[in-house]
C-alpha cells in the first residue's frame, strides 16, 4: 500500500513534468507547424540558470528559502524565454518555408549547442550538479505512506501553471490570436494579427513552462545534468504526439499517460530499475509504431 | 459496348462533410468526359477516391470489368489509370527525364541485381526509355524534348504542365485523369495543350480521358460529354451545350434563384 | 588531366597538414584551404574525373605517411566514417528516411564483431556486423514507416538513446567498460603486425580503402539507376510517387536496410581497429556528428560527405584548442549551413542517366 502510494506520487510528478514539456511542443506546433527539437534542452537551460541564480544569491549571503526559490524560478524563466524566443526569431521563423526536415535539423542542432554550452561553460558542467532543496521536506504520515509537502507544492504549482496557460489560450485576446494563427496563418494575418509577435509570445509561453519543468526536475531529484533535456525532450515530444500534436488537452493527457506507463512498467517488469530509461524509450518507439498520429489525431492538411 | 469506368453510388465523407454523395458515373471507352462544377463540389475528391488516395466511404468503382473500389494508389496505377495533379507535383530537383520515368514505373525493372550488376542491360533500357520519352515529349513541344536532362525546376509553368501530362501518358494508361491542366496557363496555352493531348489520344487509340476544367471553352471544344457536380452530387449530365442550358447548373454556378 | 592535378595537389596538401606539428603552421594551412575553397566556388570550378583517382591519392598519401601511426589512424578513421555516412546517405539523402541513430547501427556492427570475432573468420564477421545492423534496424522499420518526418526523427532519436543506455546497463555486453576484440586476421594478413618497417596501420588503410570503394560503388550505382529515381521520387513527393505505382514502404525499407548494413560493416571494422569498444563510442552526439557530416558535405553527394568526413575528423585532432568544443562547433556550423547554404559545401549534382 505504501509502495503503491510512492509509485503513484512518482508517476504524478513525472506526469506533471512531461505534461509541462509536452504543452510547449504542442503550442509551438500549433502556431508554426514545426517541432522545436531543442525544447528539451531549453528545459535543462532553465534548470541550470536557476542553479546559477541560487549560487549567486548564496554567495551574497541570501539564505531565505522563499527568496531563493523565487529567484531560481525567475532566473530559469528568464533564461528559457531568452533561448526560446531567440530560437523562434532567428532559427525557426527565417526558414519557415523550407522543408519541415530543415527546421527539425536546425532546432536539433540548436539543442546540441545549448547542451554543449552547459557542459562546457557551466562550472564543472560535465558532471551532475546538486540541486538545492528549497522546499520543506517534511510531510504528513498517511498510514504507511509519507506524503511530502514539497511534492504536493510542486504538483499544485504545475497544475496551476497549466490551468493558467489554458485560461490564457481560451479566455484572453492574446489566446484568441494564438488560436487564430494556429487555425490559419493567412486569415489571421488579414485580420490584422501581428503574426511574428504571436509566434514569439507563444514560444516565450512554452519556454516558461519548460523553465518550471526544469526547476521541478531539479527540486524533485535534487540533481541536474547537462543531458537531462534529451530524455525530457524525447518523452515530452512523444507525449505531445500521443495526445495529438496541436492539442493542448492531448498533451496533458499524453504526459500523464506516459508517466503512468513508465511507472507501471517499472513495477511490472523485472530488473526494471536498471532498465528504467531503456523501457521509457522503448515505449516511445512502440507507441509510434502503434499510434503514429497520436490517440486523438493530428489535423492533416495535405492538399492533393 | 460496356463502359470503361463505372461508379455506383460512390460516396466519400470527411467527418460530417459529404464530399461525394452517391455519385453514379460512366465513361465510355475512347471518349473525353468533362467533369465540371463550382469550387469544392467534389471533383478533385472524385479523382482522389478513384485513384485510391482516399478510400471510398461507400459505393463501388468498376474499371475494365473489375471492381477496383478498395485498391491502393499503386494498384490503381498498375491497372492503367494515371493522373495529373491540380497543383503541379513534379519532382523539381530531378531532371525532366527522371520525372517522366517516375511515371513509367511499371515498365521498368527495379530489382537490385539488374540495377547494380547488369549495368549494360540497364543502360540499354535507359536508352530505349530515353528515345520513347523524347518521342512523346516531341508531340507536345519539340524544343522541350531536347532538354530532357535539365532539372524540372528550371522550366516555365507551361512546360511543367506538359511534362506532367507526359508523365501520366508515358505508361500508356487506359484512363487519363486531368485535374485542371489550365491552372497557371493562359487560354491559348491551355487550348494547345488540349490539342496535343487529343493528338496523343488518336495515336494511342484506346485512351479515355476525364478532364476537370474551369475553362468552359476548353470543355466545349474537347469533351463529348459532361458531368456537373455540386456539393458532391451529380446535378446534370450530357453534351456541354445541353448542360450549359440546364437551370440547375446555372443556379449552381451563378447562384441564381 | 585537371582532375589528376587536383588529386596531386590535394594529396600534397593532406600530407603537409597531417605532418604539420605547430598550431601556427596548421592554422595557416587551413586558412589556405579555405581560401582555395572560396576561390574555387567563386570561379565556379567544376571537377569531374574517375573515382579511381581519389582512391589512388589516398593510397599515395598512406605510403607517404607509412611510418606515422597517428596520421594513418586518422586516415583510416576518415575512410570508416565515409563508409558509415554512405550508408546514412542512402537513407537520408536518397529515400529521405531520417536516421538519428547512425552511431547506434555503427555500434551494432561493432558489438557484433566483438562477440563473433573469437569464433568466426573475420571477413565473415565484418559482413555479419552489417547484417546485424540491418536486422536490428528492422525492428524500427514499422514505426519509421508508419510515420513521417518529425515522427521518424523522434523514433530514431529514442532508439539512439535507448541503445546507449542499454549497453551501459547490460552486463553481458560489458556494461560501461565495454568489450575487447582480438586482432583482425583476414587470410594470411595479421593486421597488428608491422608491414616491413612501416606502420601496421597501413593494412587498415588498405582495408578501409577497399571497403570505401565497394560502398561508393554500390551507392553510386544505386543512384544512377531506376532505383535511384524511385528513391528520389519517394523522398520528394510521396503522394505523386504512390500515384505512379511506387510502393513507399518497399523503397523506404530497402533504403533503411541497405544503409544500416553499410553503416554496420563500417562499425565492425572500426571496432577491430580500435581493439575495444564501449558505450561511450556510440552516444547520441556521435549520431549527430554523422548527420552533420551529411549536411555539411551536401546531402546526397558521396564526394561531399567524403570531404566533410575529412574536415570533421581531422580538424579537432590537429587544432587542439577546438577538440573539447567540437560538438558545439559542428552543431553551430550545421545550423549556419542549413540557414545559408542548405545544399551543403558540395551540392549534389543533377542526375543525368543518359550521357
Written overview of the protein:
The complex is a heterotrimer of chains A (304), B (257) and C (355). Chain A is mainly alpha-helical and 304 residues long. Chain A has one domain (2-129, 159-290): ABC transporter involved in vitamin B12 uptake, BtuC, CATH 1.10.3470. Helices cover 72% and strands 4% of the residues of chain A. In chain A, the strands form 2 sheets. Chain A has a two-stranded antiparallel sheet. In chain A, strands 2-3 form a two-stranded antiparallel sheet. Chain B folds into 2 domains: 1-80 and 173-257, Rossmann fold (3-Layer(aba) Sandwich); 94-166, no CATH class. Chain B has a 6-stranded mixed beta sheet, with helices on both faces. A 4-stranded antiparallel beta sheet of chain B has the order 2-1-4-5, with helices on one face. In chain B, helix 3 runs parallel beside helix 7 (157-169) and helix 5 (119-140) crosses helix 7. The termini of chain B are far apart. Chain C is an all-alpha fold. Chain C has a single domain, classed as ABC transporter involved in vitamin B12 uptake, BtuC, CATH 1.10.3470. Chain C has 15 helices and 4 strands. Chain C has helices at residues 2-19, 23-42, 51-64, 69-95, 102-116, 122-146, 149-169, 201-223, 226-236, 238-243, 248-274, 284-297, 302-318, 320-323, 326-340, and strands at 179-180, 185-186, 189-190, 276-277. In chain C, the strands form 2 sheets. In chain C, strands 1-4 form a two-stranded antiparallel sheet. A two-stranded antiparallel ribbon of chain C has the order 2-3. In chain C, strand 2 and strand 3 (189-190) form a beta hairpin. In chain C, helix 5 runs antiparallel to helix 6 (122-146). The chains are: A mainly alpha (304), B alpha/beta (257), C mainly alpha (355).
Amino acid at each position: 500500500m505504501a509502495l503503491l502510494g510512492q509509485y503513484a506520487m512518482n508517476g504524478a510528478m513525472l506526469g506533471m513534468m512531461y505534461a509541462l514539456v509536452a504543452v510547449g511542443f504542442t503550442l509551438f506546433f500549433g502556431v508554426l507547424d514545426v517541432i522545436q527539437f531543442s525544447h528539451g534542452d531549453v528545459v535543462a537551460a532553465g534548470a541550470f540558470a536557476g542553479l546559477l541564480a541560487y549560487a549567486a544569491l548564496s554567495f551574497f549571503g541570501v539564505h531565505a528559502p522563499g527568496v531563493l526559490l523565487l529567484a531560481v524560478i525567475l532566473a530559469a524563466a528568464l533564461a528559457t524565454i531568452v533561448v526560446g524566443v531567440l530560437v523562434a526569431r532567428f532559427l525557426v521563423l527565417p526558414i519557415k518555408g523550407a522543408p519541415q526536415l530543415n527546421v527539425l535539423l536546425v532546432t536539433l542542432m540548436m539543442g546540441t549547442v545549448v547542451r554543449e554550452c552547459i557542459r562546457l561553460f557551466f562550472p564543472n558542467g560535465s558532471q551532475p550538479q546538486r540541486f538545492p532543496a528549497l522546499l520543506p521536506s517534511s510531510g504528513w504520515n498517511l498510514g504507511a505512506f509519507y506524503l511530502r509537502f514539497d511534492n504536493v507544492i510542486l504538483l499544485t504549482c504545475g497544475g496551476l501553471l497549466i490551468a493558467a496557460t489554458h485560461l490564457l489560450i481560451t479566455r484572453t485576446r492574446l489566446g484568441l490570436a494564438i488560436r487564430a494563427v494556429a487555425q490559419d496563418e493567412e486569415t489571421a494575418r488579414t485580420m490584422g494579427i501581428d503574426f511574428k509577435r504571436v509566434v514569439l509570445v507563444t514560444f516565450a509561453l512554452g519556454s516558461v513552462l519548460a523553465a518550471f519543468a526544469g526547476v521541478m526536475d531539479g527540486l524533485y531529484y535534487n540533481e541536474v545534468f547537462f543531458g537531462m533535456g534529451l530524455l525530457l525532450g524525447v518523452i515530452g515530444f512523444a507525449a505531445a504526439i500521443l495526445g495529438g500534436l496541436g492539442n493542448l488537452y492531448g498533451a496533458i493527457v499524453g504526459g500523464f499517460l506516459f508517466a503512468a506507463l513508465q511507472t507501471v512498467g517499472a513495477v511490472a517488469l523485472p530488473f526494471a530499475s536498471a532498465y528504467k530509461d531503456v523501457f521509457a524509450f522503448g515505449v516511445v518507439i512502440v507507441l509510434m509504431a502503434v499510434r503514429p498520429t497520436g490517440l486523438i489525431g493530428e489535423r492533416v492538411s495535405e492538399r492533393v | 459496348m460496356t463502359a470503361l469506368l463505372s461508379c455506383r453510388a460512390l460516396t466519400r465523407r470527411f467527418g460530417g462533410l459529404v464530399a461525394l454523395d452517391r455519385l453514379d458515373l460512366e465513361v465510355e471507352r475512347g471518349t473525353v468526359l468533362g467533369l465540371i462544377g463550382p469550387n469544392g463540389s467534389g471533383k478533385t475528391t472524385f479523382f482522389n477516391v478513384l485513384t485510391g488516395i482516399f478510400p471510398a466511404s461507400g459505393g463501388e468503382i468498376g474499371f475494365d470489368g473489375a471492381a477496383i473500389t478498395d485498391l491502393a494508389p499503386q494498384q490503381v496505377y498498375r491497372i492503367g489509370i494515371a493522373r495529373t495533379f491540380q497543383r503541379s507535383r513534379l519532382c523539381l530537383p530531378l531532371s525532366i527525364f527522371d520525372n517522366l520515368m517516375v511515371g513509367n514505373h511499371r515498365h521498368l525493372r527495379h530489382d537490385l541485381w539488374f540495377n547494380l550488376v547488369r549495368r549494360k542491360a540497364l543502360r540499354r533500357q535507359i536508352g530505349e526509355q530515353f528515345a520513347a520519352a523524347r518521342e512523346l515529349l516531341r508531340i507536345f513541344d519539340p524544343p522541350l524534348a531536347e532538354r530532357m536532362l535539365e532539372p524540372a525546376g528550371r522550366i516555365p509553368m507551361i512546360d511543367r504542365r506538359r511534362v506532367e501530362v507526359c508523365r501520366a501518358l508515358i505508361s500508356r494508361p487506359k484512363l487519363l485523369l486531368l485535374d485542371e491542366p489550365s491552372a497557371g496557363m493562359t487560354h491559348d496555352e491551355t487550348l494547345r495543350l488540349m490539342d496535343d493531348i487529343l493528338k496523343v489520344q488518336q495515336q494511342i487509340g484506346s485512351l479515355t480521358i476525364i478532364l476537370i476544367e474551369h475553362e468552359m471553352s476548353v470543355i466545349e471544344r474537347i469533351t463529348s460529354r459532361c458531368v456537373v457536380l455540386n456539393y458532391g452530387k451529380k446535378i446534370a449530365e450530357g453534351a456541354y451545350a445541353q448542360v450549359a442550358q440546364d437551370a440547375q447548373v446555372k443556379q449552381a454556378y451563378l447562384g441564381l434563384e | 588531366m585537371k582532375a589528376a592535378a587536383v588529386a596531386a595537389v590535394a594529396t600534397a596538401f593532406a600530407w603537409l597538414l597531417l605532418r604539420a606539428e605547430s598550431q601556427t603552421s596548421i592554422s595557416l594551412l587551413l586558412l589556405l584551404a579555405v581560401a582555395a575553397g572560396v576561390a574555387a566556388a567563386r570561379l565556379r570550378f567544376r571537377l569531374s574525373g574517375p573515382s579511381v583517382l581519389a582512391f589512388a591519392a589516398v593510397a599515395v598519401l598512406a605510403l607517404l605517411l607509412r611510418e606515422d601511426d597517428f596520421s594513418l589512424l586518422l586516415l583510416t578513421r576518415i575512410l570508416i566514417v565515409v563508409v558509415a555516412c554512405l550508408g546514412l546517405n542512402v537513407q537520408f539523402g536518397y529515400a529521405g528516411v531520417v536516421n538519428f541513430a547512425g552511431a547506434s547501427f555503427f555500434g551494432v556492427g561493432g558489438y557484433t564483431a566483438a562477440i563473433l570475432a573469437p569464433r568466426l573468420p573475420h571477413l565473415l564477421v565484418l559482413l555479419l556486423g552489417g547484417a546485424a545492423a540491418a536486422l536490428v534496424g528492422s525492428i524500427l522499420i514499422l514505426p519509421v514507416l508508419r510515420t513521417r518526418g518529425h515522427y521518424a526523427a523522434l523514433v530514431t532519436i529514442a532508439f539512439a538513446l535507448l541503445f546507449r543506455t542499454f549497453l551501459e546497463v547490460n552486463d553481458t555486453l560489458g556494461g560501461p567498460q565495454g568489450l575487447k576484440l582480438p586482432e583482425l586476421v583476414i587470410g594470411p594478413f595479421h593486421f597488428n603486425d608491422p608491414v616491413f618497417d612501416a606502420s601496421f596501420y597501413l593494412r587498415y588503410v588498405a582495408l578501409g580503402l577497399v571497403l570505401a570503394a565497394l560502398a561508393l560503388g554500390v551507392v553510386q550505382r544505386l543512384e544512377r539507376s531506376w532505383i535511384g529515381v524511385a528513391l528520389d521520387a519517394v523522398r520528394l513527393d510521396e503522394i505523386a510517387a504512390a500515384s505512379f505505382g511506387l510502393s513507399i514502404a518497399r523503397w523506404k525499407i530497402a533504403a533503411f536496410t541497405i544503409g544500416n548494413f553499410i553503416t554496420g560493416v563500417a562499425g565492425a571494422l572500426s571496432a577491430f581497429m580500435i581493439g575495444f569498444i564501449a558505450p561511450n563510442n556510440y552516444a547520441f552526439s556521435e549520431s549527430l556528428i554523422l548527420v552533420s557530416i551529411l549536411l555539411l558535405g551536401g546531402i546526397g553527394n558521396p564526394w561531399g560527405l567524403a570531404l566533410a568526413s575529412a574536415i570533421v575528423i581531422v580538424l579537432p585532432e590537429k587544432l587542439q584548442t577546438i577538440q573539447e568544443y567540437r560538438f558545439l562547433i559542428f552543431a553551430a556550423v550545421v545550423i549556419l549551413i542549413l540557414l545559408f547554404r542548405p545544399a551543403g559545401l558540395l551540392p549534389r549534382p543533377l542526375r543525368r542517366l543518359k550521357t
